[in-house]
């Protein structure tokens, strides 16, 4: 448990540094930086779960039951960190702006009336007399 707790504490600090940064958010200082956090926790996780997957016992199962909710809360805390989210959102918006992409994909503009209208005729399934869809049956 102490190794997990230390890994969680370290990653929490690393993420907080990113979220509190006063630099303009970029892909490198936000997305890539978050991806690099949690090195110790990843190592502890990998070793512990390799052990429990291959040679478990009651003591390890007890630790597993205790650590699972802590890890879930930790992941939630990172995912729901509003300051971090605002940085990620700014990176996403800048990426769309610099790539000259519309704010919404073009397929959102027109509702689909019939799904067969969106499939090119050459790829539509052929119907046999049985009524079943047979795309590549030999003739």
Strand order of the largest sheet: 1-2
User: What summary fits the major beta sheet?
Assistant: 2 strands, antiparallel
Number of helices: 5
The residue ranges in which pLDDT falls below 50 over 5 or more consecutive positions are: 126-139
Global outline: elongated
What order do the SSEs take from the amino end to the carboxyl end, as H and E? Answer: HHHHHEE
Number of strands: 2
Alpha carbon gyration radius? 25 Å
Structural class: mainly alpha
Brief summary:
This protein is mainly alpha-helical and 139 residues long.
Structure overview:
The longest helix is centred in the middle third of the chain and has 22 residues. It is built from five helices and two strands, in the order H-H-H-H-H-E-E. It has a two-stranded antiparallel sheet. It is mainly α and 139 residues long. A hairpin with a 5-residue loop joins strand 1 and strand 2. The chain has a domain of 97 residues. Helix content is 59%, strand content 3%. The C terminus is likely disordered.
